[in-house]
C-alpha cells in the first residue's frame, strides 16, 4: 500500500508532462543544415540551387517560430548565393534585409554592398 502511495503521484506527474505542448523553436532552419552540408561536400550548381531553395523556404516559414524572424545569417547566405550566380541586385537586396533585421551585421553587410557596387563600376545615365 505504501508503494502505491509513492508510485501513484509519480505516475500521474509523468503522464501529465506528456500532455504538455512542446515550445516553438526560436528559429526555423528547416533542412538548411543538410542542404549546406551537401553543397560543401559536392560543389556543383545542383547542390547550390538546393541550398538556395532551402534558404528561401526557411525564410518563408518564419510564422511557426517563437521569434517570428528569419534566422541570423540566412539573408546574408542567400545574398552570397545570388552574388555567386551573378545576380548583384538580388544580392544587395538580401544583404540589406540582413542588415535591417540584424543591425550587428551592418558593418559587414555594408562592406559587401560596397564591394558589389565597386565591381559594377559607375553607372551611366546617358
Describe this structure in words.
- This protein is mainly alpha-helical.
- It folds into two domains: 24-71; 72-120, no CATH class.
- Helices cover 65% and strands 0% of the residues.
- It is built from six helices and no strands.
- It has helices at 2-17, 32-41, 45-60, 74-84, 88-101, 106-120.
- The longest helix is centred in the N-terminal third of the chain and has 16 residues, at 2-17.
- The protein is elongated.
- The mean pLDDT is 83.
Radius of gyration: 23 Å
What class would the helix/strand composition place it in?
A: mainly alpha
List low-pLDDT spans.
none
Q: How do the helices and strands follow one another from N- to C-terminus?
A: HHHHHH
User: Mean pLDDT, nearest integer?
Assistant: 83
Q: Fraction of residues in helices? A: 55-70%
- Strand segment tally: 0
Quick summary of this structure?
This protein has 6 helices and no strands.
Helix/strand layout:
Blueprint: H1 2-17, H2 32-41, H3 45-60, H4 74-84, H5 88-101, H6 106-120
